[in-house]
TrEMBL record, chain B:
PANTHER family xrefs: CARBOHYDRATE TRANSPORT ATP-BINDING PROTEIN MG119-RELATED, SUGAR ABC TRANSPORTER ATP-BINDING PROTEIN
Lineage: Bacteria, Bacillati, Actinomycetota, Actinomycetes, Streptosporangiales
Highest rank taxon of the organism: Bacteria
Domain ABC transporter intervals: 2-238
Protein name as annotated: ATP-binding cassette domain-containing protein
Coiled-coil ranges (or none): none
PROSITE patterns given in the database record: ABC_TRANSPORTER_2
Keyword set, alphabetical order: ATP-binding, Nucleotide-binding
InterPro entries for the chain: AAA+_ATPase, ABC_carbohydrate_import_ATPase, ABC_transporter-like_ATP-bd, P-loop_NTPase
SMART domains: AAA (SM00382)
CDD domains in UniProt: ABC_Carb_Monos_I (cd03216)
A GO term, aspect molecular function: ATP binding
Amino acid sequence: MTNAATTVRKPYTPKEAVERLRHGDLGAWPVVGGLIAIAIVFGSLNEHFLSPENLTNLALQMAATGTISLGIIMVLLLGEIDLSAGSVSGLCAVVMAILSERMHWNPLLAILTALVAGALVGLLHGLMFTRIRMPSFVVTLAGLIGWQGLLLYLLGSGGIINLPFDGFVAKLSDTWLPSWLAWTVTAALVTVYAASGLIGRRLRIAADLPVTATWWPVAKVGGLAIVLAGSVLVMSADRGVPLLLVIFGGLVVVLDLVLRHTAFGRWMYAVGGNVEAARRAGIGVTRIRVLAFVLSSVLAAFGGILAASRLSAVNQGSGGSDILLMAIAAAVIGGTSLFGGRGRTYAALLGILVIQSITNGMYLLSVDSSVRYMVTAAVLALAVAIDSLARRGSTT
Amino acid sequence: MISATDISKRYGAVQALQGVSLDLRPGEVVALVGDNGAGKSTLVKVIAGAVSPDSGGLVIDDRPVHVGTPHDAQRLGISTVYQDLALCENLDVVANLFLGSERRRLSILSHIRMERSARDLLTSLDVRIRDIRVPVAMLSGGQRQSVAIARALIGEPRLVILDEPTAALGVEQTAQVLDLIRRLRERGLAVLLISHNLADVRAVSDRVVVLRLGRNAGEFRTADASQESIVAAITGAAA
Ligand SMILES: Nc1ncnc2c1ncn2[C@@H]1O[C@H](COP(=O)(O)OP(=O)(O)OP(=O)(O)O)[C@@H](O)[C@H]1O
Ligand SMILES: [Mg+2]
């Protein structure tokens, strides 16, 4: 593999490494460190925390809010905010439930219609933001209140719609991958990842571009294999890998690929980094902004449907309480910058994992939710502090 | 050759430009100088299509052309590097160079093709950046200015306009950028340089065009002109 003509990207000198740290190029490491700390602390305080059953529950609990958090990331990348995501998730879940239960539509069609409703809501937000130039904070604050109102109106005096336990929607969160399928998917993912890395490396060498030292991609593939195999092993010891986790994970991966490998994704980052530069480069800034709000609301709608599936019902509290705040906190804790232009979809996965672990661990220790809120707040404050320091570093 | 002929532009009560003409030839660096408010930026905006003149227009190779928008100008091979850099600090050098004109296949970005051309372009301009995949935020001011200038070359322009490219730079970085401007000339590009710094102007330009109160106020071959005569034209002391 060592070819004399291959230019190897040199490792960073300590000075440059410090410089990278100062510029917030920490990547996911602080969060991963935090997760390990959480695992150690709760694992030693309660032997049930790291049990397969509890970890599988954790995986199941993440999907709905995590999906909403993915949508939040789409607008955070532009340096905007979507406060309506919780209400929109509840509203669209209610739309889905009314269509499938009260009007007896085909559940898939009901879900699709609810997602379209989410898209229209996002379109409205995006147009109010770009055409009328209302701040996104205000547009989506109005949405937070207004869509909640519409939800209550649609639900009417009944106040609750139950979804049959054996129905399609409820089944979503009670479907588990058989062990052979989980292992096949794992093997396929690792193979595709390794192959794409290898091909990319070959192409770079062929184009005479620098590549990293060989151990780095090997370590990345190995790391992925260990994490995936470990997760499958743990969850297979319980009920298996939940379909919900696969759906959420799939969304994270696909959206990350879109953001990094398409012009649309590049332009999202460009608009978030410097609107004026993007505009001068001929990028349709308005279109990108509207699309981001549409994506945010569609993902919120989908998250709402997943939440309804978990609960096997929608009610007046759907999409309410702390869902929105947790979704935003997850995005930020995962490393998405509030100032725009920085962050990846994996932030939703890592961030929600942190929040759910804390919630779950505190619950096991029967700590009062007051303490849980304060701990979550501290973690959030820490994440934003890191983000702010990184930003200060990059502008001086 | 690209010429601006008899350009006039009025902003309300202010006659920003009055019958100004300017010729730009391939392989020549023309410095546009003048006091504050002389109309330099306005003239540049007219040439770059950002402002439409009240009268007069552009002539390219003896043919009058219509430039209504910045996009028109770009299509005609006129590329502008504005004073504020217009880079996305969160994106890497490659992404910035190709911003808005990304190379792609089936709407998937061709990362390798872009990185390869970016590297070739920067090497040909002798711009030294150790790792072109780090965010622009981590580069020095001179490197950023170099990236901004290199970016102007992506569309294979024939004229590059630079508005105050050395204004915010230190001595060494200014030298880097001036070198880069010489290399643009070697490539056979027409270069229009706006600067308040006469030392830079004398170091790099072939011709100096002076504007004063929105009118042509003199034109010098840099090699033959003394600093005093240029200053006199700028201040109007010669009149
Ligand atoms: N958009 C505008 N609206 C009104 N007046 C303008 C506008 N742009 C320029 N002017 C006026 O036109 C005149 C020429 O301005 P211009 O910016 O072209 O000068 P300049 O030579 O670039 O000056 P400087 O060296 O300060 O950059 C000035 O009196 C200015 O006030
Ligand atoms: Mg000016």
